[in-house]
Amino acid sequence: MPRAGLTPDRITAAAADLADEVGFDHVSLSGLARHFGVKDASLYSHVRNLQDLRTRLALLAGGEMIDRIAVAVAGRSGKDALVAFAGAYRDYALQHPGRYAATQIRIDQSLVADSPALHRTAEITYGMLRAYGLDEPDLTDAVRLLRAAFHGYCALESTGGFGHPRAVQTSWDRAIDALHITLEHWPREEKSRD
User: Fold this and answer.
1) Are 89 and 150 contacting, i.e. CB atoms less than 8 angstroms apart?
2) Which end of the chain is more exposed for a tag (fewer CB within 10 A), N or C?
């Protein structure tokens, strides 16, 4: 079965599975070649290099994640949408740690300008926040706050960083309540009067 059936999509899907198993930082072209029973060089006709593979993996994972979030927030707004968004985000991060780690890498914007997953992510995230009455530049600031809060919580939770006996889920629920209150009372940036 050497090269039969190898495609960029199949290689990326295998890399995603491997990332969840061994960690995103441990995914290598050599490991994937072994998985497929081919020599390393066989992969280079499908992916340029490890960075190309990581970019593809990040886009795959980002697409999977936003698909879950979209289903969760469909038909919801305000706090209900925030709770659903946050829950889907956290579930994905904890269920797919390697894929999730891939979503955190910086990707060359020229490579992903036409990515449907990135456009959908922006559309869903900004749409949820517009229900709080936010416009730019507050939208960008709110997106950064949510990403930092969700990512920080998931990173700590996944490594056992919460040692207090209080239930982690209870703290998560309270954090989402606090974020909702913050979004409802967002400090608006003063518009300059020209």
Assistant:
1) yes
2) C
